Amino acid sequence: MTWLVTGGAGYIGAHVVRALVQDGQRVVALDDLSTGEADRVDPGAVLEEGSVLDRGLVRRVLREHGVTGVVHIAAKKQVGESMADPLLYYRENVEGLVALLDGCRAKGVDRVVFSSSAATYGLPDVDLVTEDTPGVPLSPYGESKLVGEWLLRDCERAYGMRAMNLRYFNVAGTAAPELGDPGVFNLIPLVFAALEQGRNPQVFGTDYPTPDGTCVRDYVHVEDIARAHLAAARALDDGAPGATYNIGRGEGSSVLDVLRVVQEVTGLDTSHDAAPRREGDPAFVVAAVDRIREGLGFTAEHDLRSMVASAWAGWRLRHP
Ligand code: WQD
Prior knowledge:
Layout lengths: L1 E5 L4 H12 L3 E6 L14 E4 L5 H10 L4 E4 L6 H6 L1 H22 L3 E7 L22 H20 L2 E7 L1 E3 L14 H10 L5 E3 L11 E2 L1 E3 H16 L5 E5 L5 E2 H12 L6 E3 L8 E2 L4 H7 L7 H15 L2
Parallel strand pairs: 1-2, 1-4, 2-3, 4-5, 5-6, 6-11, 7-10, 8-13, 9-14
Antiparallel strand pairs: 9-12
Helix pairs in contact: 1-7, 2-4, 4-5, 6-8, 8-10
């Protein structure tokens, strides 16, 4: 078996490549290095440089490496950017998947693990978000991920492909400092950036109907995310049918919980500034995780402290 990991030089992709290599799988990473970095790719994998939109390249890579399954992670992933430039998101995330699946169909590759997102749910008004909670995404980013799931469902019906849609909740942490998230777009890196610049971190909304008034999210360690991909890939290799799974911990942490843990880990003062609510932010998004536990035998192992501590080690490596 050989697994192709698209986006394999990116933050999440490099962790997935590493988990597959450590499991003894043959792995090829395809990455256009727009945000990925070649030296993140585990030396046990082969790196092919280029875009999934390059149909000729996709076919060559599938053929030359004898690829039997694809983990598709290459995508744009910033909600705000997707509102400003939806065509970019439909091109990269939807056309990119179409191009990849064209190649898979031509080369008889029938197994796909798809990087989906809790953004497909939009503003879920439930205590725990199950995979059956109706999806009403609020951004072109979330829409592009839901469209990807529909595309895969249709390819399952028509061509007999099997797809595992993995809906990530809030990914954080790193398995090794050099694999840390280089982006400064999400809460934990934004808090680190503020502390480094001697500013107070901002808390977007302190009047939400949650226990401490700040938004609650389900933070999950990228190493756990990578293990879930490995479990999904192995299940497909064992003949499992396609499925859709949340990947979270099933536990909520508020923005103030995160600040408290950052203070414990870094020893820095995380006094914050209360800022207005950010448009489109749901108050409470926590995953139901029974389906992935039963279907793939997967349970997240790392807690919030482990995420923050590892993310901080990664941050300090990049910002000495
Ligand atoms: C987390 C919480 C903010 C910054 C997004 C996407 C989602 C997924 C993960 C990919 C929120 C609050 C943030 C700050 C703050 N991406 N916050 N001050 O919005 O939950 O999820 O990334 O699949 O689809 O929507 O993540 O890290 O931006 O915010 O108070 O400076 O932290 O309001 O409650 P979010 P986030």
